[in-house]
């Protein structure tokens, strides 16, 4: 099908291309009757503006890129909802990519978004991201970058996150207040900041309540959000530390793996062992027993991160400097049957 051009509209009406162009841009020096005829003809001929030309003129593509580690986790689906909702309000389209917790794929995706000339990038880093040249490349191209959830403190950009250490501290302190003393932690991989911060919160809560830290009660979940990690580590824990009375997990999905193993092996929750999750995704409220957890404001995180990014994009457009922000959103303990 032939693409309609400004010239086609001009020929149809017997007027100049310049007049057509001005009318479609709503210039005041084209009279109302002529402007209306041009608009009607443009609709009849299914004219749409050349987006590349519009982009070159405005120096914007009206697109933003989003890179997340995984789409499996309910948390990230809610973040994406917030991002899309806020972006659409301002007329932006969203390109969503998944790094699958792989640094090399994350790097390729950053390069792709740069090549696509997105106006800005939102990112939650992969668990394997331990060097940051690709992030510095984004900033060197003067592309606004906002990190959320899994961030890197050394990168000079805006960030939106929770206080993972405090949230973990509050969760473990609650377990202690309920009388649990032999508390295990199913922690995340050793690299991501969030898993290290949650481990610090766990350890500090024990110390502040005068409970000796026992490294044998800490089990690593290499995938951070893996149901099987929870299931397999629960099996190991009961074999190696049968006296444990509570478990604090890195995510709800890990906790649900624990609950499945316990249910299958007639280990009563919370009478024998209490289970505490992290995120408050949908399944935590419907699993049996329902899961006590930390609520992360996922949707709000997506909205706030997008608001900051779009503000920085506008500053870029107007050649104004942006002051980087770090927003720490509040968390909440959600008490259910598992504790």
Characterise the protein shown here.
- The protein has helices spanning 6-13, 17-24, 32-44, 51-58, 74-89, 103-115, 133-140, 164-177, 193-208, 227-240, 252-264, 283-286, 298-317, and strands spanning 63-68, 93-98, 120-123, 145-148, 158-162, 183-187, 218-220, 246-249, 274-276, 293-295, 326-329, 332-334.
- The chain is α/β, with parallel strands linked by helices.
- The protein folds into 3 domains: 6-49, 434 Repressor (Amino-terminal Domain) (Orthogonal Bundle); 61-162 and 298-328, Rossmann fold; 164-295, Rossmann fold (3-Layer(aba) Sandwich).
- Helix 1 (6-13) packs across helix 3 and helix 8 runs parallel beside helix 9.
- The protein is elongated and about 90 Å long.
- It starts with 5 loop residues before the first helix and ends in a 5-residue tail after the last strand.
- The mean pLDDT is 91.
């Amino acid at each position: 099908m032939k693409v309609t051009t400004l010239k086609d509209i001009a020929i149809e009406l017997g007027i100049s291309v310049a007049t057509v162009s001005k009318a479609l841009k709503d210039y005041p020096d084209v009279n109302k009757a002529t402007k209306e005829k041009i608009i009607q003809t443009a609709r009849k001929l299914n004219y749409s503006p050349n987006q590349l030309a519009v982009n070159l003129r405005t120096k914007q593509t009206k697109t933003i890129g989003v890179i997340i580690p995984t789409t499996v986790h309910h948390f990230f689906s809610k973040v994406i909802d917030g991002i899309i909702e806020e972006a659409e309000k301002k007329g932006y389209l969203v390109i969503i990519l998944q790094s699958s917790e792989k640094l090399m794929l994350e790097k390729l995706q950053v390069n792709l978004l740069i090549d696509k000339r997105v106006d800005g990038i939102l990112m939650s880093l992969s668990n394997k991201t331990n060097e940051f040249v690709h992030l510095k490349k984004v900033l060197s191209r003067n592309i606004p970058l906002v990190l959320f959830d899994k961030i890197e403190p050394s990168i000079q950009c805006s960030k939106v996150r929770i206080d993972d250490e405090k949230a973990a501290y509050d969760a473990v302190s609650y377990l202690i207040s309920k009388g649990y003393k032999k508390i295990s932690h199913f922690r995340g991989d050793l690299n991501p900041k969030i898993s290290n911060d949650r481990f610090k919160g766990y350890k500090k809560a024990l110390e502040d309540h005068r409970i000796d830290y026992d490294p044998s009660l800490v089990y690593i979940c290499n995938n951070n959000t893996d149901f099987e990690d929870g299931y397999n580590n629960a099996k190991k824990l009961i074999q190696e530390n049968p006296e444990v009375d509570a478990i604090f997990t890195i995510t709800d999905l890990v906790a649900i793996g624990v609950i499945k193993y316990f249910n299958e092996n007639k280990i009563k929750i919370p009478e024998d062992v209490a289970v505490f999750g992290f995120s408050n995704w949908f399944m935590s409220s419907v699993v049996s027993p329902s899961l006590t957890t930390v609520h992360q404001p996922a949707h709000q995180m997506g909205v706030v991160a997008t608001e900051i990014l779009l503000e920085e994009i506008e500053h870029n457009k107007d050649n104004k400097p942006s002051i980087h922000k770090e927003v720490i959103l509040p968390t909440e303990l959600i008490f259910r049957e598992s504790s």
